[in-house]
Amino acid sequence: MKDHLVRVATKDGTLRATAAVTTELVDAICRRQGTDPTASVALGRLVTGAALMGSLLKGDQRLALMVEGNGPLQKLHAETDAQGRVRGSVKVPVSGIAPGEKGFDVPAAVGRAGFLHVIKDLGLKEPYRGMVQLYSSEIAEDLAYYLTSSEQVPSTVALGVYLENDGRVSAAGGLLVQALPEGQEALISVLEKRLIDLPPVTTLLRDGKGPVQLLEALFSGIPLGRSEETPLVFRCTCSRSQVLAMLKSLGKEELQEMAAKDEDTGVICEFCKEHYSFSQDEIKALITPVGNTETP
Ligand code: ZN
């Protein structure tokens, strides 16, 4: 099944939900990052969470999630846009935490203390920035806690990543359910109970069920409006000109140091690991001559 998400709202407009399958993009991101199994699960969850939250974006809006914890992974990053393009990275891809009897200890890899940062570029002058302390470091609960406490939208998030013995991601996906302000308490509690009874997302995906079936199981008997589907893909937004602009922002001193070296300057994109190389002349051209800083 190709990665995609499906978004629905109840006919009475009191609840909305998004379900996603993210297997291919999580696998692509983990391969590029060179993650060990526990790191793959942690990063896969964050990437899937970003894809789900991205379903609420419109037009050119972008969303970035960053988890900064005191565990071995240090910093995890996931970004997406309204078109379902997703990328992700992890600062230290090897957690060194072997899976135990109960599965993957994501909180140990992320760290039990830390922060979740949410940055939304909504096309306004300044991006919106939100931050909460990590709630359980399991990622799904942290996102739900952020949405409920910071954005004031009661939310439930379920995220799953299933790995084969060789570490390959064979199923990944998730579910986001949100109650809108006029939501009926009774309906919400029905949904909460169903969510608890629902098998893990990865079990459903491995049984060949997709986002539509996931939502059908959850909302059975509850009238729904028209559903919307968005394909999800791994896509990095980096480019040579963007890397050059980043280098330029480093400032004159650092650039002069680079230009003085007897070799090309190499930059590796943290997300897709693409390698960009710049000659000394290209670096020199970035240095604005003294006294010529003003545009004519
Ligand atoms: Zn890139």
Number of domains: 2
Radius of gyration: 21 Å
Q: How would you describe the oligomerization state of the chains in this entry?
A: single chain
Measured by DSSP, the beta-strand proportion falls in 25-35%
Query: How is the biggest beta sheet arranged?
Result: 6 strands, mixed
User: Do you know the CATH topology of the largest domain?
Assistant: Hsp33 domain
- What is the number of strand segments? 13
What is the number of helices?
10
Structural class: alpha+beta
Low-confidence stretches: none
As laid out across the biggest beta sheet, the strand order is 7-6-3-4-5-11
CATH architecture title of the largest domain: 3-Layer(bab) Sandwich
First and last CA, distance: 56 Å
CATH superfamily of the largest domain: Hsp33 domain
- Share of helical residues: 25-40%
Output mean pLDDT: 93
CATH class of the largest domain: Alpha Beta
Description:
This protein is globular. It starts with a strand and ends in a 10-residue tail after the last helix. With 296 residues, it is of the alpha+beta class. It has a 6-stranded mixed beta sheet with strand order 7-6-3-4-5-11, with helices on one face. Strands 8-9-2-1-10 form a 5-stranded antiparallel beta sheet, with helices on both faces. It folds into 2 domains: 4-234, Hsp33 domain (3-Layer(bab) Sandwich), CATH 3.55.30; 240-287, HSP33 redox switch-like (CBS domain Like), CATH 3.90.1280. Helix 1 (23-33) crosses helix 2 (37-54) and helix 9 (252-260) packs antiparallel against helix 10. It contains 10 helices and 13 strands. Zinc ion (ZN) is lined by residues 236, 238, 269, 271-272, 274.
